[in-house]
Amino acid sequence: MKVALIADTHDRLDAVAELLRRLQAAGATMVLHAGDYCAPFALKPFIDANMPLLGVFGRNDGDHEGIRAMAQQGMGFELWESPHSFDVGGQRILLVHEIADATETSIETHQFVVQGHLHKPEMKEREGALLICPGEGCGWLHGSPSAALLDLDTRKVEFIQLPAAEWTR
Q1: How many domains does the chain have?
Q2: How far apart are CA 125 and CA 115, in angstroms?
Q3: What is the pLDDT of residue 145?
Q4: By the 8 A CB rule, do 77 and 135 touch?
Q5: What pTM, to 2 d.p., does this model score?
Q6: Which of 8, 91, 121, 153 has the smallest number of Cβ neighbours within 10 A?
């Protein structure tokens, strides 16, 4: 099973929509979002993509109730406070906005830890858990909107970055 990983989308609807198109074309059937949507309207590209979304709130999500209300318009959307643990495709996943919010014991008891907040794509292994930051879906800080595609069966991660030249104009 392939899942889309995204974080720190910060209201940049056009970049998020393009990333979701590419992730769906690559086989993603679900989105895991590690926080910082920022506003309720920022969920529109996810609703339009018509894929289930499991997400946590980040530091810049001020209107939790508004975001939750918008999420109810989507198919299979579930939003929690960070960190949140769940199973997908037989794999234990920890979704967290900022890794400092997760305990070492919690990290060790998951196969995958999806984190946001860093705004740069990163992947490393810690105590058997694969820690993945998909970067910034918005591209505001580093110029290249990014996301990742995770194959839960093979543990393969593919980072997807939109060309900076097209997104810094």
Answers
A1: 1
A2: 13
A3: 97
A4: no
A5: 0.96
A6: 153
